[in-house]
Sequence to fold (263 residues):
Amino acid sequence: MKKTLYSAVAAAFVLGAAAMPALAQNIAIVNGKAVPKARMDALAEQMARAGRPVAPEQEEQLREEVIMREIFMQEAQKRGLDATPDFQAQMEFARQSLLVRELLVDYQKTHPVTDEEIQAEYDKVKAANAGNGKEYKAQHILVEKEADAKAIIASLKKGAKFEDIAKKQSKDPGSGANGGDLGWANPAGYVKEFGDALVQLKKGQITETPVKTQFGYHVIKLNDERTQEFPPLEQVKPQIAQQLAQQKMAQFQQDLRAKAKIE
Fold:
């Protein structure tokens, strides 16, 4: 009798010990169905990718959310919602989206942008902008009529202050309140007529005649000019790397499309 009891206890102990690793892989048993810990880990990883890492004190809350999802899923399955055509179509679309994402992530991992590629792109852009290295600090007064612009030029020649006239008469809402100040800018950033007139001026000079653009008539004053320094590589490296990564990805997609046999 004792031998039989001991055998039963030993068997129960062995079975319990064998079940312990399995229990460790689950966070709960809901209506007889195990909820694997992997679900909780996957949700935590997804939240971390979205910039919301799970703190230790939030783990119980996360566990409860995973359990509630299991409860909801069981209820939905009980009602047959997982067998509807609409659900099946959404599942297929989600499967495709996840698989495509994995493909693109894998491509990025296996085709990283190298420092050599970044340096080459930087050198190319720098060389292309070698001739556009000047910035100009200017003021302007914008009016609707040419006659008004000519009258302003005449007043300036008599000693009127550019800032005062700009504040009173300029139709440019951005610079008018600041005395017509446009700050530092490359001439290419303005409309062509304005930029062309600006580069013809010498420091301290005002346009002799109004400059007509699509916005009206401008009176322009050049206050200063300087050579624009091209930013160092380290300053623009992240932007270049991102741009090259996008270019690689676009080329990858184009190559796949070109190789595909479509009937």
